[in-house]
Amino acid sequence: MKINIITFFWSNNLGALIQANSLKSFIQKKSNQTVSFNSYSPKNLIIRERMSQINRKNFKVLHKVFFKKLKNFYWKKKIMKCDYPNQKNLIYGDDLYVYGSDEIWNYQNPFFGLDKFFFGKDNEKKKITYAVSTGNLDYKKDQTVENLKTYVKNFNEISVRDYESQKFVEYCSGKKPVIVMDPCFLTNLEENIKINDNLKSEIQRFILIYGDYFNSNQIQNIKKISKNNNWKIISVGFYNDWADMNIISVNPLDLICFFINSKLVFTSMFHGVMLSYKYKKQFWISEDPYRIKKLSFFIDYLNLKNRYLENINNQQIEYKKDENKFLEWLDLSKDFLEKHIIV
C-alpha cells in the first residue's frame, strides 16, 4: 500500500516543515507502509518560498537567510525525502491520500489562491484530511465556497485543527468534523537532537523569540524581563534588531533545540505556541491577526487566553492542571489517523 500526503511540504517556514515531517513519520510508523509527499505545489507559492526574506538590505542578514534556505533545502531532500515541487499533471496512483495539515483550504491566501487540487479535484481514490485548516479565510465573503461543497463532501473522512475550519466543513457538508492536534504533537523529533553549538555554556539562560510581530510596548516588556533575570534575548529564524542575538540559519531540529533549552518564549507564530506547549515552556503570545483563527480552539481548549502579551504578569502555566484534557485530545487525534490510514 502507498500513502501520499498533500500539504505545503516545500516551505521555508520551520513550523510547516516540522508538522509535515511529523505527520509523515507518524503515518509511516503506524501503517508500516510507503509514505511520500505529493510533489505538486502552486507556481506562485514556489516563487514566494524562493524569494521570502531575501529582500533585506542588510547584507549580513541576507547572508544568513541564504544559509537558512540552504540548510532547509538539505532538510527537505535528505530528512523529509521530498522531490522538488512542480506543477505536472497528476496521476493518482497511490492507495490513500492524506490532505493536511496547514492551511491548504485557505483559498483567499494571496500566494496560491483557489487551487482545487487541494480540495481533491479529480482524485477518486480514498482520501482523508488531517488537521486541515482554512487559516483566516472568510468563506462568506464570496460565492467560491458554493463551488467547493461537492469536493468537500467527497472526502471519506475529514478532521480539522480549529473552530473556523470546522465551521467551514460543516457549512459545506452538513457534517461537523472532529478537531485534532497539530501533527507536531504526534511524534518526538527531539530524539534526534544533538546540542547545537549556539547553546553551549555561555548561553544557558535565554529568552527565545520566535516570530517578528511585536509592538514597541511588547518589546519593552520583553527587554525588562531580560534585564531583571539577566537572560539573553535570542531571536531564532526571524530577524529582530532589538534582540541580543539573531540566529537565522536554522533547520527544524535546531529550532526545537532552542525551544527545549529556553527559559521563556515570546512568539507570534502558530507553531511557536504549539512547540511551547509541547515542551511545557512558560510562554507569551503576540497576537498576529493573521493567526487568530488558527489558534482559537487550541487557546480555548487548554485555557490559554491569559497568555497574550497584553496580559503579561508573573502567572505561570500549570501544565498538570490540563494534562488529562491534553492527553485525551492527543489520543483522539492519534486514533483518528490510525483508524483511517488503513485502506
Helix-strand blueprint:
Blueprint: E1 2-6, H1 14-31, E2 34-37, H2 43-51, H3 59-79, E3 96-99, E4 126-129, H4 149-153, E5 159-160, H5 163-173, E6 178-179, E7 206-210, H6 216-229, E8 232-236, E9 245-247, H7 252-261, E10 264-267, H8 270-278, E11 283-285, H9 292-301, H10 323-340
Parallel strand pairs: 1-2, 1-3, 3-4, 5-6, 7-8, 7-10, 8-9, 10-11
Structure characterization notes:
- The chain has 343 residues and is of the alpha/beta class.
- It has helices spanning 14-31, 43-51, 59-79, 149-153, 163-173, 216-229, 252-261, 270-278, 292-301, 323-340; strands at residues 2-6, 34-37, 96-99, 126-129, 159-160, 178-179, 206-210, 232-236, 245-247, 264-267, 283-285.
- The protein has 2 domains: 2-185 and 330-340, Rossmann fold (3-Layer(aba) Sandwich); 189-319, Rossmann fold.
- It has 10 helices and 11 strands.
- The longest helix has 21 residues, at 59-79.
- It starts with a strand and ends with a helix.
